[in-house]
Amino acid sequence: MGEPQVKNDGSGKSNEHPYFGFVMAFVPLLASLVLFFGWETFGNEVVLKIVAAFLLGFGLIGFGVELSNHSNDDGALEAGMGLALTFFILMFKDAVPGTPNLIVLVFLSLGIFCIGLSVTRLLPSTQKNKKSKASEVLDENKSTKKMYTFIIIGGQVLGAIVNVVNFIRLFQS
User: Fold this and answer.
1) Where do the domains of the chain lie?
2) SS3 8
3) For residue 6, what is the DSSP state?
4) CB of 57 within 8 A of CB of 33?
5) Fewer C-beta neighbours within 10 Å, C or N terminus of the chain?
6) For residues 39-51, b (16+ Cβ closer than 10 Å) or e, as one string?
7) What is the pTM of this model?
């Protein structure tokens, strides 16, 4: 009765804004940065930094989901999960300094695994996809797909750099 109705044009896709998911993923990212770096304004440091870590993970996974919905299964979801795990454990270790290094190592290893999995999806497969000329002509928005691939590769490189730096910090302390 009071619920908004989304009209469907029969093609299986709703008429909702195509980038709505990106906006919904950006909101928790922004909130997490505000909470993490501005905790003095809101109160308890430990609680707010842990909440910020969860919001950051939620936002990064949301971006991964949206990128994978707009691209052809190229590992965006795995990259988002890997970055989320990596940044989550870093923010958690900052909030709770007594976190055991073994737990940090497990989370960082899972993050590296997810990022590595997404990198392998970007590599060309050994089996060649046989496409006809007609299907290549119908393959639209190649520049948009290249943009999404660039965003995914940038996230993977950033995640790899963060993981290497964190491994170095982990074993120095």
Assistant:
1) 20-123+146-172
2) strand
3) P
4) no
5) N
6) beeeeeeeebbbb
7) 0.63
